[in-house]
Amino acid sequence: MARNRATAGLIVVAVGVAALIVTLAVSGTSSRGRAAAPFAWLHAARAPVGWLVARAPGGATFAYPPGWRPIRTDPGTASVALLGRGGRIDGFLNETPKQGDETLANWSQFRTQHNGDEGDRDVRVVAATENVGLRSGRSSCVIDAYTTSKARYREIACLVDGASSAAVVVGAAPTAMVARQTPILERAIATFIP
Q1: Which residues contact 187 (CB under 8 A, 6 or more apart)?
Q2: 16 and 76 assigned to the same domain
Q3: pLDDT for res 6
Q4: Minimal CA–CA distance to 71: which of 47, 88, 50?
Q5: Does one domain contain both 16 and 103?
Q6: 128 phi/psi in degrees, rounded to 5
Q7: Which of 51, 56, 113, 145 has minimal CB crowding within 10 Å?
Q8: C-alpha closest to that of 35 among 112, 136, 109, 141
Q9: Residue 117: its pLDDT value, please?
Q10: What is the mean pLDDT of each run of 10 residues along the chain (194 residues)?
Q11: Are residues 133 and 46 in the same domain?
């Protein structure tokens, strides 16, 4: 009788552990060091043949595809966009030097608060991962969604802490373009070197 109870107890514990693992995998978060499922692409990559390189004044670089073009944004940054009809932004990539209290540990909260402070509405975290190793350092990333005065966007924003500097790389697209633009944004972010 005691042996049956012990076996039943072990089965309950095993089922509980399995449920916890599945919940963590589905939630899109990760523990330190390994990217969660939505970030399986997050590893250093070379630029595809034919892509161009954006270089920020501080030396950070990322690759972007033909058809995208540099645009002016904040001083000290590098930004490129895929422009649609009437100058509509159908895809956006940006590098900005680390400027505030952002850390690998607080990145998802910091980024969503920053978006709200910039005037974005209905800011929502879709997924986050923390302290993932890259060729150029460690990275914490968040996928979030927000609404501006022009459209609803989904973005991937990563804080990359390199050997000599830290910087933020962001890729965003209107939700109507997300399926088409996300692979491009992911590939560009994977080429980022702060």
Answers
A1: 41, 45, 48, 63
A2: no
A3: 40
A4: 88
A5: no
A6: -150, 150
A7: 113
A8: 141
A9: 94
A10: 43 32 34 65 91 94 97 94 92 94 96 94 96 84 94 96 90 96 96 91
A11: yes
> Do 39 and 127 form a contact (C-beta atoms < 8 A)?
yes
The pLDDT of residue 154: 98
Helix (H, G, I), strand (E, B) or coil at 181: helix
Q: What is residue 100's DSSP assignment?
A: S
Residue entry with tokens 């968040």: 142
Domain check: are 60 and 3 in the same one?
A: no
H helical segments located in the chain: 2-27, 107-117, 178-190
Report whether 14 contacts 112 (CB < 8 A): no
Task: Please give the Cα distance from 21 to 187 (Å, whole number).
Answer: 28
User: Domain check: are 50 and 111 in the same one?
Assistant: yes
Residue-level pLDDT at 165: 86
